Structures are given as structure tokens and as C-alpha cells.
Protein: HTH araC/xylS-type domain-containing protein
Organism: Hydrogenophaga crassostreae
Amino acid sequence: MPIPTASLPTFFPAPADLLSWTRGAVAARLPASVERSHFPASLDGMLVFRTQGQVFRAGQTTALPALALIGPSATPMAFTHAGATCTHGLLLAPHTVSFLSGQFNGSTLGQDLCLRTLLPDEAGRLVESWSGARNDTARCQLLFAWLRQLICLSHVPRAARWARMAGLAPLLMDGHEAACAEVGVGPRQLERLCRQHLGMTPHRAQTILRMQATLRSAMKAAETRQGAELALSQGFFDQSHMARDLKRLAGLPLGRAVAASRDAESTEWPLAVGQQQFSQPGLPGEPGTTAVRMPAPTQNTSKHTARADAAAAPAKSRR
């Protein structure tokens, strides 16, 4: 297979009917000179289809599967590349990772799963149809169509089980007490739900969401707030509190993160994709997560659905 022509990573927003499942798709053709990729911590996961090169978790010697489902991560992720790489993928909401893997995100946190093992028939159909897509736009649209078909053809209770948790992450942005009130559970049950469906504690999930919202605010070209003003506007105690969280969860200071978001040819190219994502019109109001508040399905036929019902109970909007 020929070495892919390098081009800037490109973000493709998801169709409206899939926004509760995926934020969008990414096409990345990276030259051999980009030897590493750094991703901030995230509640979201990724579906990655790599057709050129090899990619390894930093410090590991086993390459990621060519068709991989990557779970959420509570810490920054680093990957190394062997040669030029060509990758297309979807940015997945937390419940979409659970839907595809059939597992709670408590067990997919920080994991790289082989989609051919999880869904052999569906993965095979995706691979077979790939050669018919002639450009990045067509390939990303193919990924959207593949996910849509998988959702539509899925046994309804299976899709409903995971879709009921789509609104859990945005609720945490309002604080734990507000989340408990809207979900209708106590603090301990909220923690169990977050560990199961987000793979981490409510506090860690909220901290990651706040980090992402801070990056989003700082990346806006028209945004003039910096330093202490930005920290207070995002709910941090002070500027040093913001700096610590960004270094711990994004892997680099705010100034470097903003600069990296304007350089799609560096190891921080995922931040440049985030810059494209944040500039798209019509995105859901809650920053930092693909999940949006949505009505829960009416079916309630699985043992896990009853547990999820409480977390997805329709809440009166305060907006």
C-alpha cells in the first residue's frame, strides 16, 4: 500500500440524528515526522480505522488493532507511530463506547479493544465497503452510515440500555448536588452510576469536563479572557488551580495548549482537531462531551435498563 499523502487532520461534524452518539469524524494523514500523538483526558472514546502505519501506546510494544475501539481515559494518552499513518475515526459519546463494546465503561477505561473481535460481522462489512469510498469526506460519511445502521438494526433494548445514559455527563457540569437532584439518586448511587457508565468518579468526570470547557473557551479566536478571569469563569478557585488541572489532564500548560491547537502538524494535533470541532456551528450547549440531554427510550426490558432509568429520568430544564 502506498504511503499516504500527508494532509492536515480534518474534523467532520456528525449528522444531527447522530449527535447524541458521536460528535463527529476525523481524518488524519500524518507524515513519518509526526512520531507521537498526545490526547487530553476525555470521557469520550474513539473508533479508529487505521489503513497505513502502526500505532502503539507509549511504552508498549504491541500495536493497536487496525480497527480499534478506544475507551475513555482519566489521564492524558500518548501514542507512538511507526512510519506515516493514515487514520479515520469517530469521536464517541461514553454510552456509544458501552453500546459497541457491550461493557460498562468502568471496564473499558483506558483500554484498546479490537472491533473485529467485539463485532466481527459488523466490522467485516465496514472493511468491505471501505474501498468504495474515494476521499476523506466519503470515508467519514461511511463511518456515520455504519454507526447509524448498527444503531437502527440493534435489538431495541440493547440500544436503549446505553442511550439512557446520554445525559449523565452534562449533568455533572452543574455540580454533584444538582446532578443528584436531577437524576433522582443519592451521592453514593451517583458515584456508582458514574463509575459504571463513565468509568470514573463524578469528581474526576466533572474535572475533565471543566478542563475541556476551559480549553474550548481559550481556543476561541474572539476570546480575550485569560489568566485569573478565565479561571474564575470556568469554576476554578484561582489561576494556579486551573494550571494544575490543565497540566494533569491535558498534559501541558494552557498557553502551550492554545498554541498547539493552531498547529495541526505537531504531536498535539488532536488539539487542532478540537479547535475545528469547537468552531462548528450548532453544537450542543454542554462543552467538552459528545453527550447531550435527550429523552429516554420507553423500553425497559433489561436488568441494566432499570438501573439506568433513574439516571436518565427527564429533568426540567433550568435554561
Summary: The chain has two domains: 7-162, 166-311.
